[in-house]
Sequence to fold (207 residues):
Amino acid sequence: MSDKLTRRNVLKALGIGTLAGLTFTRTADAMPNSDGTPMQFIPKTAPDANPLENELSKYPKCPYCGMDRTKWNHSRHLVHYEDDLVDGTCSLHCAALSLSINLDRGPKAIYAPDFGSSEKIKPLVNVDKVTYLIGSKLPGTMSKTSKMAFASSAAAKAAQKENGGELGNFDAALRQSYLNMAEDTIMIRMRRAERRKKMMMEQQHKM
Fold:
């Protein structure tokens, strides 16, 4: 069985259409002539056969959390689906959301940034060629559990020696993302609620 088919089966097994207690109805009767993805979650950009070209200009914001992908370029991911629709996300956490929601839209390629690169904007690398450092002291993006990708396994091992954590491939990192999803979603919602409360208080003080 190919890596691509194995990964698709893993995505279906892990996603099962449910995230953080929210169950999405995905039936042929509800959505005739579709691939099963709820319409509100289908990537909104036009099909793109070359998503890495001017990638940050075309996909500047994460569609799931709104975060700036240039600012978070060290953790951003990009999912290129077989129908050439693209989801450019801020993190593996949000890429996991995309993959779970788009269960019947197979990924043509998935890209992660090389955290070990010295470039200001970390270059994207196909996840089949990276090593993830999972659960290290490096700060995570949208998650308490850090999952950083390295193009060089030697660089990943060096980072592990300094920061701890476990080494794994993309599937291991994705699996950890789903395992963390409930806790991370609660954390994110609490932080955003606190931010909204603070903004409302500041507005009231200005009145």
In short: The chain is about 35% helix and 15% strand. The beta strands are 18-19, 22-23, 77-81, 86-89, 107-113, 124-126, 131-134, 147-150, 166-168.
